[in-house]
User: Fold these one by one.
Assistant:
Number 1:
Amino acid sequence: MGLLSILRRLKQSPDQEVRLLLLGLDNAGKTTLLKQLAAEDISHITPTQGFNIKSVQSDGFKLNVWDIGGQRRIRPYWKNYFENTDVLIYVIDSSDRKRFEETSMELADLLDQEDLAGVPLLIFANKQDLTTASTASELAEGLHLHTIRDRMWQVQACSALTAEGVQDGMIWVCRNISFRKKNS
Ligand SMILES: Nc1nc2c(ncn2[C@@H]2O[C@H](COP(=O)(O)OP(=O)(O)OP(=O)(O)O)[C@@H](O)[C@H]2O)c(=O)[nH]1
Ligand SMILES: [Mg+2]
């Protein structure tokens, strides 16, 4: 599923401009995911020092996907990108168990942010192509996701490398944007 087909689905929503925000620890796979959505080459991706943005528009509708670098020293800047976010997409390297606590703490911090209050949350349990990856439900349990009650949320197993699961996640994103707009 590419950015244009996401945009096509979003035309059911009353808003003319949609903003998706990709966050997660460094090495989680955010930029790979963004490039996969944009149908770009994913073989030479380097750690993001600032941010990447992909935009598509047609018939007066615009979709912006923001991908912010996840290295620790860049995380203080995440907050500059919160405003007007329609869906937060949080990416986790499901094979990197020793960083589950770190990613869980960063996510908890995001959920406390006023500018992201009520914003639907899709968690990509990425890198499912690796045999060492935890499943989406193990991740959900390990990160105590069931305690999230103040917004719509969903965990989706995926591989940004093979694109498996990415479409299912983006369909959820599209549905929940229109849902939020209709009810806000
Ligand atoms: N096996 C596997 N590797 C992946 C997957 N997604 C990303 N990677 C690899 O993980 C590494 C980091 O990917 P990036 O997309 O740069 O991660 P990022 O979240 O953008 O990292 P920062 O820009 O530092 O925040 C790269 O070597 C990718 O090829 C995946 O689904 N499976
Ligand atoms: Mg990156």
Number 2:
Amino acid sequence: MKSQIKFLKFLLIGFLLSIILMFAVPSVAETFLNTAYIRPRTLVFAKGNFWVYAHNNFSPSQQTMIKSASNKLHEQMNNPSQRSKLIDCGLRRTVRAKPSKQVVDNQLKQVFVNPASGNRPIKATVAYMWGEKEVVGRGTLGSGEFPEKGDLLRVAFNSDYFGDSSQFSLRNDVDYWSATLLHEILHNLGYEHPQPKGDFITEFDLCVNFNGSIPQRFGLNGGTEDNIDDVYFRMRK
Ligand SMILES: [Zn+2]
């Protein structure tokens, strides 16, 4: 009888400890990463297949920006000729590891146009990042297989760089933040950039920023693009 009570006590303490650890470990991890990935979050955009949640720590003006950026991106990606123009622009500028147009088009359609699996929406969560210098956003690197993890896309925006209280020159630039949202989603889809420019993910980002109307890159450090490069490649994403 005594040993049974002991065992029950052991179970109860174990149970309580696991509950505490379940909440404590992610919070500690988030503090180290300067990024809050855990809920609570709010659905700020839902059109067709594409749903976007924003972490509740974001201010109203930041939530509005996430909503506007999602809306612009969704519109661009649902327009077949615009999508095609943007991919062409990105591929033209890419100087290494060029993906095929068909592959990119299919991936974008799976996220923004057709449900990747049945009628389940693609849910993207924008996590809350803070206190990181010269990093505007982050995206978890995926395997390139899609869909994965229940159609969840995980990205983070640095709260110091957008919304009304930020000092960043592009804090209210919807084009910049919709391009950033796409950039981080592309990380989820398996794209990497060992170099700060010249890879598809960074060049496509820029094409989305400028609606596909930027010239072919003539050498990474030359020509008329130096101004664009200074402004748009200075911040890490
Ligand atoms: Zn990146």
Number 3:
Amino acid sequence: MKKLNVGLIGYGFMGRAHSNAYLTVSQFFDLNYQPVLKAVAARDPDKVKQFAHKWGYESHYSDWRKLIEDPLVELVDIASPNDTHAEIAIAALEAGKMVLCEKPLARNLAEAQRMVDAAKKAGTRTMVWYNYRRIPAVTLAKQIVGSGKIGRIFHYRAKFLQDWTISAAVPQGGAALWRLDVDVAGSGVTGDLLAHCIDTAIWLNGELESVSAMTETFIKERPHQLTGKMTDVGIDDASAFLGRFKNGSLATFEATRYARGHKALYTLEINGEHGSIAWDLHDLHRLQWFDHKDEGAMRGWRSIHVTDGDHPYMANWWVPGLSIGYEHSFIHQVADFVNSLDEKTPAEPTFESALETEKVVDAVLRSASSKKWENV
Ligand SMILES: NC(=O)c1ccc[n+]([C@@H]2O[C@H](COP(=O)([O-])OP(=O)(O)OC[C@H]3O[C@@H](n4cnc5c(N)ncnc54)[C@H](O)[C@@H]3O)[C@@H](O)[C@H]2O)c1
């Protein structure tokens, strides 16, 4: 097996999810390349050393530029906050590296466009970690839509609900709370949570054409973790929009961090001419499917336990009936990326295709501010 030398930037939530994927993937998938944990970079020299030791990275840096300069690193994986994505990705692409980047691609459309331009110029492989595509039940939804069984699609609705920022005492900025600081995150739930819903929607149902959105910032001031000062909050705490897809179907989307009782409830539902599909992240190994072509008296929603060898990715795991989890979506994404290396078609979404999600995010934020329908 050939080696694929990985350099990871950021060792937080996603740094761990990606490291686990690189370490595990070749044990369960037959690949031509074995990911090697070559180097990791993050700002704190002691913490990055500890992380490298714990996960088995061969070297570590406290400046991501050094990791990019490392001639042994072939693939740069960006798992740091949104304000770092464009600068790191463009530098890595200019150095001729393959680049994987966490979502959202960037803080705003202009930054994302510069990343896409750099990727085109470099001609190296890119991919964005929209991992929900690789949850087997969601991939099965894609297969059902692709098979035509659902027929013409009329409605697409998605929600991503959390409740962790309701207290006004939660600070913004700094470790773990950079998502609440607009300068670092770019936007609030629109770029963070809705971006996932939008990516899956485009993948399953094609591009969106226009949107009409509203956003709200419920807590207007929060202490800043880095300065200790009360600072205006610039992110959207909640975001909802109506949309029209290019295929004529209608969309409703909602994301919030103020839905008490919901921790990470990503749900989607598609209603078509012959059937409907529903999925939710809290029950991620099940896909709900309604087939109007079933015999009348027996017609009803089926709950498909997506754990059989016939289901996407599942033949690589345990015996039928045994489920897998969130972390496996990252393992599947690495498997697809590695498998694409010898092929002409890249693993999706590339920087270029993920730009479409950035365009929708941009249109949603524009519409919330103009209070008018906006074209994507
Ligand atoms: N695909 C998903 O489902 C998913 C889930 C969570 C987060 N994310 C995305 O992943 C990225 C990271 O989020 P997270 O939750 O892992 O954040 P985190 O706060 O847990 O970790 C961020 C890491 O980046 C490091 N870092 C910060 N600034 C840096 C710099 N200038 N140079 C090098 N390292 C730096 C921090 O030290 C930390 O290790 C974000 O873009 C986020 O939107 C994606």
Number 4:
Amino acid sequence: MGEPGFLMFTKSSILRGVGCLIVAFSLVPSRAWAFEESSVEPPKAPQVAIRQPQLNTIFPMAIQPGRRLRLELQGEFLDGASQLLFESGDVSGAVVSATFTTALVDVAVSPGAAPGRRRLRLASERGVSNTVLFRVSRWATPVENEPNDDLDSPTSVESPALISGRLQTEQDVDLYRFHAKAGERLQFNVLGARNGTNADVSLAILYPDGREVVHDDGRFIWDPYLDHTFEAGGDYIAAITLTRMPAGGQPRSDLSYQMAIGQSPFFWSVFPMGARQGSSSEFTLRGDFMQAGTPVQFSAGAQQRATDGLVGAITERVSSGDYRLAAKIHPSTAVARNSPLEKGAAP
Ligand SMILES: [Ca+2]
Ligand SMILES: [Ca+2]
């Protein structure tokens, strides 16, 4: 989820910049011609450019451990796709069918798979595609049910849930009805930019009659995030719409998003930001939805796997939003920039 480094940018074009970079790399032909000095004329450029498969969207974007799900991939040059490639061994899959623009694939997640991001690629005789992101989640993973544009036809969901939705047109509105108990505190974490999609959306929490409770246009890059305590118990509506003034103009494709509704431990910062090998160290974590006694695992970089020798537990609450974290760092722990904070991961 939230790349910590992205937090210093809001509504910027940095993610799209990254996207362009990936596209540029993925279009480099895998075949290179090398010529020795000779009098032989070099062969003429091929009439038809070699194009590798290009993935633009994946939907739905979440699977529970132990489940198998059919996903739709959209892009270009997908015809003839024969293989799915993953970066970790706890997910596997196969291509069911593929046309030039659409591939259906079956993806299975092993029962013991840890929640978090996964990426997949498509391979064909044309080459290997770029990656697209989906998430493994222990929460329910419902998909929006269109039509859900009106107050009397919302998609019903139960918290906690990691919902997959998409704005099919620029006029599309997606409404989700959920129940909150009196005094219940819930977080609403919309994932578009942080999933690598172009969806720049707004989130509003509404009473069933449409009156607004609270809204947000973007907290992480352009992804909305709300943390709200409901005074009165009852049904409410979470409404996803296109942002009126999107960053850099709203692309018309890949307006898919996820929305996590629930209570997931959420880190904002850690201090100090380093510790010595072999030490028993204390950190102060600022965060939400954490409890004393909660074990903490540290992960190294983007690999998202627990790093041997880096373990800890939240010991107590220091002040509002601050928690003390005691951690032991094994002497053999690799010296590296570890990433203990992944903002807003849905369990
Ligand atoms: Ca929709
Ligand atoms: Ca809709």
